[in-house]
UniProtKB/TrEMBL annotation:
UniProt KW keywords: Ribonucleoprotein, Ribosomal protein
Tagged with keyword Ribosomal protein: yes
Lineage, highest ranks first: Bacteria, Pseudomonadati, Pseudomonadota, Betaproteobacteria, Burkholderiales
This protein's GO CC annotations: ribosome
Molecular functions (GO terms): nucleic acid binding
Native organism: Caballeronia calidae
Name of the molecule in the record: 30S ribosomal protein S1
Amino acid sequence: MGLWESLFDFLGLGSGTRTAQTSSSGSSAWQRTARTKEPARTIEAGVVCSGVVDYVDDKFVKVRSGEVVATVFLSELADVFVERATEFVSEGSYVRFVLKEPSSRKPGEWIASLSAVREAEVRARLREFEPGSDHACRVVDIQDKEVVLDCDGVPAKAPLHELSWSWIDHPSRCVRFGEELSARVLRIEAPDNWLNIKAARKARLIVSIKACVARPESPLVEMPFSAVPFRLWAEARKPRICDTVVMHVLTELALGARPEEIARVTGFNGLALQGILQALEDEALAREGAPTRKGKSLIDVIESTRQLNEARLRGLFASAAPQHSQFVAADQSDRHGEYPHAWPRPPAHTKVEDMFMAATDEAVPEPLVNLVADADNRAIVSSLLQDSRVRVFVRKDGLHPRKVVYLRVPEHWVLAGLWFAFDALGEAPFRPVDLSDRCKDLLVVRVRIPSTQADTPAADYYFDPVTGLYWTPRAESQAVIREMKGADFPEMPAFSPDGLGTKPRPPSRYERRWCRVKT
């Protein structure tokens, strides 16, 4: 046994290995494995390669991965400043690099980057995420306006307003460093041209933590509103000459009456009646004393509108209420007698009311129709809305231009409007993080406490009758506060001007004024 045979026996490889080395049949597993070719790699920009450093210069590095040869310049060695490449890598070092673009000076070679490897890996992982999906994350950094998270190796950012359903001034109030929690993907940020622009290498997820937590349910509070009475009305589109008298003549003709009979009943002289008949013929509504097809169609349309108008589909429009509560049943104003006459008129938005009263045809809101009409009348309204010969609209109803209605609205909606204009006095109530959906017209009572020092102005406090809370003005608020006339005030509890519960003061001892707050 020769030296190599003894060595193979010592290693436990035995004669089978020798056969694999010497056999020319190609039947051994070792031979098949040795001859198996690796699948061809796709060589293109953005591909991550693994290889070794072939050559190191002060200003660049040559790397190789199989048949791929690439040059990495100083600026692409790391995210930090590198003065000399020899200080960062050495020949023979194992590295991973990203292909940026083919070299313009050396055909067959590439320009590559070591610092973009992490970005390329992140962008490849981003394909696993979709907006709306929930993922487990870990807090890795807490900044002033956002939280940085790690979602299974993928960087993510949660903005301050996506951390909690209530307002917070710093992320540390609701999350802790290293805390594991769930987050929902809002969108995926992946700036273009990241291979050439370092500033674009910040692919990440934008997530929401509060979306994975149940939103606090708002209690309902009663709030008065000023509402406009309206009714749904329909009119036929008819020629201008078709006033009540002309339409009466056309209707009588449709019923079979002859012109002389119409003249006898109405008292029209022959000349006047002849003028009406001529006008009907000019509009192609009648011919030779009988209505045409167009005339009969107009009569049918007028009859349809009459049925709708006689149904008296009435309601109330509370313009300052939340959008889903603006349409109110007509009988809901029965409580308007409870609102004190000495108080200012409850909130209303005149511009919104004008837009509502201008609604016609397709602009008539569907919730309005569902509120004022039963199933049969809804079918009539739907038919008229699809009829180009008819105009359906809303018009003011009744002798009183406004009525007071009490509606149950979300307290958070009212608080959002108050927080927009004021700061809470004492213990702060719930503060929504999003103040866009808020009450934009508030009626409050101002309590003015005079200063004991001549050079100090009086202090103003505001009481909200809906929530029963006191508030203090905010200097940077954009709300508009205007005094209103009012001879009486709601029951107001005593309050502490410092908000700490010391020396409660009854507001009746001080000057009080009604104020309207536009937010």
